[in-house]
Amino acid sequence: MIKLVNVDRTYQIRALRHYVLRRIRLEVKEGEFLTIMGPSGAGKSSLLNILGMLDNEWSGEYYFNDAPVHSMRMKDRIDLHKQNIGFVFQQYHLLDNLTVEENLDIPLSYRNMRRAERQASVAETLDRFNIVAKKDLYPNQLSGGQQQLVGIARAVISKPKLILADEPTGNLHTSQGREVMELFKELNRGGATIIQVTHSESNAAYGDRVVRLVDGWMLEENAHGETRVPRVVTML
After folding, report:
1. How far is CA 86 from the centre of its chain?
2. Sign (positive or negative) of CA dihedral 78, 187, 217, 230
3. How far apart are CA 36 and CA 44, in angstroms?
């Protein structure tokens, strides 16, 4: 489903170029549940933003279902994202001028669905996440945990092929976090591909495998299960 080849992400700081991601090579099969882990500043969220087609300032090759994202026009990338990807943001990214109910309807508006179908889907999702009583409230009237739940509900409501989650349970109570991870596992069993960024080993245990980042490098794993940072070879 996903293939990255030598993906770099850099920032220009004065006269210096700072690497956030270096020569990332990654393949994710359809239906896989992948976890990305690593210390703060390792490039985890940057990698997730590239996978979600929210960041265009990178180099290398990115294939999504064999489509070359790296050579697409911006409009085509946006359309590909809307039709296939649900994103759980660490900072929620709810629209402040829309109610909870209206925020949940946004992903459905990109699909070819009748209004009655959309309303039924929103009602079902509100009930599933136990936020029916919050449907007419605006984001600034919600607690951080409630906003997180709405953000997760918005990401999964359209049953996307790929779900990207950046610290999805970071602001939730333990029981809520466990329910969300069980939901992700259920969606994964139903065929959804899931990539999560987390510091939680218990959340990572829900997935099939773990990719670790250190200083922008993806760790390599050998036959003994040991990991190492790839050696940098400088050509003179």
Report:
1. 7
2. negative
3. 7
Q: Position 194: which residue type?
A: I
Per-residue pLDDT of the chain (236 residues; tens, 9 = 90+): 999 999 999 988 888 889 999 999 999 999 999 999 999 999 999 999 999 999 999 999 999 999 999 999 999 999 999 999 999 999 999 999 999 999 999 999 998 899 999 999 999 999 999 999 999 999 999 999 999 999 999 999 999 999 999 999 988 999 999 999 999 999 999 999 999 999 999 999 999 999 999 999 998 654 444 555 544 333 22
Are the C-beta atoms of 100 and 141 separated by less than 8 Å? no
Q: Of 230, 231, 221, 218, give the one whose Cα is nearest residue 44.
A: 218
Domain range list for the chain = 33-56+74-208
33-56+74-208 is a CATH 3.40.50.300 domain: yes
Cβ partners under 8 Å of residue 210, min gap 6: 34, 35, 36, 37, 204
Please name every residue paired with 87 in a beta bridge, in sequence order, or none if there are none. 164
Q: How far apart are CA 27 and CA 62, in angstroms?
A: 10
Query: Which residue type does 208 have?
Result: D
Residue whose tokens read 């649900």: 86
